[in-house]
């Protein structure tokens, strides 16, 4: 009976998600958390066609429709934004009509060179890092909102996958921390700009220190000895966050809408740190 | 007697300041607040030689040494940073020796297009604005710190002229707010990176809504009607901050060192809002 109810509700609304950085550790986990119901379209965005196909294959057993945007390179923000929105336009146009909700999950991003303090950055490094981690983010935010607001979508959500570093500074995270702070603040402004438009919400979500490649890279490269030891201990003691856990939490939060638009939510606001 | 004491102290330390955006309303006020004592070298940084010469002429009656770096264009971050540091290197090399304090005041910056919401930004606009207002800032921070730490300077300070927008979001300020948040966070990371090096401090200073051209532009262009009316009222009622007042406050604060490194200080933390 509850199955029948949720099935009826599911038919009533089509959910269209785009997930950038879909081939990374967290991106895969987010796709895994989203895939399932037949009322969902999930657009996987990344650079490598083969890696995206692998992620799509992993979600093929679900009832959700999986789409791919390959060749999306954050070093080319305008083209990448255009490619994502173009695919979303096609997906929305092919829907049978009825209620639609659009969600953009901006998970793409790179670590800055954690071996370096700010005074060791090169000018080209600053420029290219900022392009990939902020300009591409802002460009896709702009083009997604422009597109989405032109549709009949009843709910439009931009999710910024951010970090504790956006709100707390640590040594050796200069460019990463600065660009995450910029992303968070852009989300707050978008929220203010839609204070009178309940369709549009933004969320900045800090997924925590994740098990996987990215944390291994942090442990291997971070120049600050205190942090290196801290992360090594968390790794040894199994205190890193499981990607599937944090992905489930953010997807549930977005689906429920139970957050203040523009806010920064940390995984440890939603669950206790691993014992 | 106190004159004699302060004169001895003054001879003991050479103060070298570089001020970017030196030809703008606040830049001129900062130069005015700094110029005076004979132990000060002030490097005025900007694009226009003639505008810089005009500012220099205004400070010529002081006992401070005034230097100019013209042609510094934040749209070319590497060249601009190089030009500033090259001049500072010359100024420091020409000092007679003894104690030196180096201060970089990063006041250069532009308003973003306040008529636009985030979804109206163009990709090129996002890229070029970010270059001028964050990449150039970070590049100069990096090169200045690298240079300064290689000298015998006993105190090295980076001042980020920021805004309330770095910490509070308002509609139509997307790119401005995001890049100011990024600048603030970079300053916090630099502070963390020098937690064990008391020579180096950073300060993010929000000068307030200033009388002058920039506020006139805000009132003329901001898309949000509530803010337009609010700023017009502040203007009518004489409640905008006088550039000379806020410039004096930040210069005194930097000189005294009476702030926590990495912190964001607002003009209204230091004085009551105009009656």
Give an overview of the whole structure.
The structure is a homodimer of 275-residue chains. With 275 residues, chain A is of the alpha/beta class. Chain A has a single domain (13-208, 243-264), classed as 3-Layer(aba) Sandwich (Rossmann fold). Chain A has helices spanning 2-12, 25-34, 49-58, 77-93, 123-149, 174-193, 213-221, 225-236, 243-256, 267-270; strands at 13-20, 40-45, 65-69, 99-106, 155-161, 200-206, 263-266. Chain A has a seven-stranded parallel β-sheet, with helices on both faces. In chain A, strand 5, helix 6 (174-193) and strand 6 form a beta-alpha-beta unit. In chain A, helix 2 packs across helix 9 and helix 5 (123-149) runs parallel beside helix 6 (174-193). The radius of gyration of chain A is 18 Å and the shape is globular. The model of chain A is unreliable at 1-11 (pLDDT under 50).
Give a brief outline of the structure.
The structure is a homodimer of 275-residue chains. With 275 residues, chain A is α/β, with parallel strands linked by helices.
User: Which superfamily, in CATH terms, is the homologous superfamily of chain A?
Assistant: NAD(P)-binding Rossmann-like Domain
Main β-sheet description of chain A: 7 strands, parallel
State the helical fraction of chain A. Answer: 40-55%
Number of β-strand runs of chain A: 7
Classify the secondary structure makeup of chain A into a structural class.
alpha/beta
Q: In sequence order, what are the helices and strands of chain A, one letter per element?
A: HEHEHEHEHEHEHHHEH
Uncertain spans of chain A: 1-11
Kindly give the count of domains of chain A: 1
- Count of DSSP-assigned helices of chain A: 10
Roughly what fraction of the amino acids of chain A lie in strands? Answer: 15-25%
CATH class of chain A: Alpha Beta
Shape of chain A: globular
Named at the architecture level, the CATH assignment of chain A is 3-Layer(aba) Sandwich
User: Ends of chain A: how far apart?
Assistant: 38 Å
Largest interface: A-B, 52 and 52 residues
| Rg of chain A, nearest Å | 18 Å
Oligomer: homodimer
GO cellular component, one term (chains A, B): cytoplasm
InterPro entries (chains A, B): Biopterin_syn/organic_redct, NAD(P)-bd_dom_sf, SDR_fam
Pfam families (chains A, B): adh_short (PF00106)
Protein name (chains A, B): Sepiapterin reductase
């Amino acid at each position: 009976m509850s199955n029948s109810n949720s099935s009826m509700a599911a038919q009533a609304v089509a959910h269209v998600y785009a997930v950038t950085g879909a081939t990374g550790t967290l991106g895969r986990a987010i796709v895994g958390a989203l895939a399932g119901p037949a009322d969902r379209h999930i657009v996987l965005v990344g650079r490598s066609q083969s890696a995206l196909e692998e992620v799509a294959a992993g979600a093929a057993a679900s009832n959700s429709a999986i789409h791919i945007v390959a060749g999306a390179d954050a070093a080319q923000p305008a083209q990448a934004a255009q490619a994502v929105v173009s695919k979303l336009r096609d997906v929305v146009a092919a829907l049978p009509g009825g209620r639609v909700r659009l969600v953009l999950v901006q998970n793409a991003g790179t670590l800055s060179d954690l071996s370096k303090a700010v005074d060791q950055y090169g000018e080209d490094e600053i420029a290219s890092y900022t392009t990939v981690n902020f300009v591409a983010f802002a460009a896709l935010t702009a083009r997604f909102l422009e597109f989405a607001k032109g549709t009949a979508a009843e709910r439009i959500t931009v999710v910024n996958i951010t970090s504790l570093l956006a709100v707390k500074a640590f040594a050796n995270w200069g460019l990463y921390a600065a660009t995450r702070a910029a992303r968070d603040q852009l989300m707050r402004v978008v929220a203010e700009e839609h204070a009178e438009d309940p369709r549009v919400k933004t969320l900045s979500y800090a997924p925590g220190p994740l098990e996987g490649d990215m944390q291994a890279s942090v442990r291997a490269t971070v120049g600050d000895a205190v942090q290196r030891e801290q992360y090594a201990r968390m790794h040894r003691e199994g205190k890193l966050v499981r990607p599937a856990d944090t992905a489930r939490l953010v997807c549930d939060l977005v689906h429920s809408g139970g957050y203040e638009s523009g806010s920064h939510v940390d995984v440890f606001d939603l669950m206790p740190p691993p014992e």
